């Protein structure tokens, strides 16, 4: 027998964003449509799957009767998806943070061998068990906020063995955490110091050794590359992503964060699921992304953390062009040391001028599309029963009161994996 969730406001998150254009440029009606709002809504959960969704008054026979367990909450929505993180890493970079605050640009730190390469050294020294244990602790912190799917990139090993070590840590951690961990191969995160004068040889290594071993071992379903100044060129990125696709890995790309490096155009050309960052994307790149169905994944914490508020990703231009948009933490030790997806919602509204509905959609339906997933990100019959419940007066409150965990309960694969003492189930 299953159980029922009754929510004063139920956000279903419809999949087809194209239909939402009929609601105009703003207003509560449009936001309610974007989130698929059902007042006094009901979700029937059976095993790991959602069996029915709709108004409480129309619930089916299986959701009625004294024998049915009912969990009541104020706001229920799909479990949150943090679709871009670098959560498997060792060490910390607070010294670099101090340097930047003293006036040293991040790109200079990166080009002088710091930045990513500092963490690379720490990861290479760390044991596989240390990486696993640290990732487990971090995943539990994300779950408390309402996250049920957490994407985790490699990219701090930059040798075949160390990249696989990081991805194996993701797989081992999965056995211990109450959320899905999605591994993403990012061997092309930076050129390691030992290949600084042999860039082409490192790209060869990524394509000819790393990708085949990652794919054969089943260590990741996605292949990412950092396409920007100080990292990889558009030509190198295209080669790496196409190689990943040949081995069945879905293409994703860090695009145009520091300069207009042509990353968005590469994403469109290869049919990537997402192009992430996009602070310097040009209009042609946006049009190409929209035509190719590439999701724009935006990380406002990076702008706040690095002090680059004068170059924000063009969220409204992406939406107006017809792109789906996702928000993510970009949790990493150098440019976004945060796991607070709730604060990311607020920053999406205040910095990118997203509406509350657009922001909430971006960490559910939008993030699911960035991962090319249809089983998560929405509440509908047949979807996986991942649900986040919040004790707030209105769904828009989640984007307004930041820095506070409002979670009342988190349900992953139909199981209650986190709840507050007040979150009682009526029997």
UniProtKB/TrEMBL annotation:
Pathway(s) served: Amino-acid degradation; L-histidine degradation into L-glutamate; N-formimidoyl-L-glutamate from L-histidine: step 3/3
UniProt entry keywords in alphabetical sequence: Cytoplasm, Histidine metabolism, Hydrolase, Iron, Metal-binding, Zinc
Family: Belongs to the metallo-dependent hydrolases superfamily. HutI family.
GO molecular function annotation: imidazolonepropionase activity
Cofactor info, note text: Binds 1 zinc or iron ion per subunit.
Database matches in PANTHER family: IMIDAZOLONEPROPIONASE (PTHR42752), IMIDAZOLONEPROPIONASE-RELATED (PTHR42752:SF1)
Domain Amidohydrolase: 119-418
Residues noted as binding Zn(2+) in the record, renumbered to the chain: 84, 86, 254, 330
EC number annotated for this UniProt entry: 3.5.2.7
Positions with a binding annotation for 4-imidazolone-5-propanoate: 93, 156, 189, 257, 335
Catalyzed reactions: 4-imidazolone-5-propanoate + H2O = N-formimidoyl-L-glutamate
Protein's UniProt name: Imidazolonepropionase
Gene: hutI
Necessary cofactors: Zn(2+); Fe(3+)
Primary role: Catalyzes the hydrolytic cleavage of the carbon-nitrogen bond in imidazolone-5-propanoate to yield N-formimidoyl-L-glutamate. It is the third step in the universal histidine degradation pathway.
